[in-house]
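sry for the spam today, last one i promise. C-alpha cells for design, 58 residues
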C-alpha cells in the first residue's frame, strides 16, 4: 500500500499518456481503413507522389 501511495501520481500520469496514445493509434487505424490519407493536398506537387499510391499508378 505504501508503494501505491508513493507512486500514485506516476501511475495516473502513465495511464493518461497510454490512453492518449491508444486513441491516437485507434484514430489512425480507423482513418486508414476508411481510405483517408494524412496528406491534405493533391499528389501532383508531392515529392512522394509515386510512392504513396502504387496500386493506382499502374
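last one done:
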Amino acid at each position: 500500500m505504501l508503494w501505491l501511495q508513493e507512486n500514485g501520481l506516476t501511475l495516473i500520469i502513465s495511464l493518461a499518456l497510454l490512453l492518449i496514445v491508444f486513441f491516437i493509434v485507434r484514430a489512425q487505424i480507423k482513418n486508414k481503413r476508411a481510405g483517408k490519407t494524412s496528406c491534405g493536398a493533391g499528389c501532383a506537387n508531392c515529392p512522394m507522389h509515386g510512392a504513396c499510391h502504387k496500386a493506382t499508378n499502374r
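The CA atoms of residues 44 and 50 lie 10 Å apart. ok im logging off now
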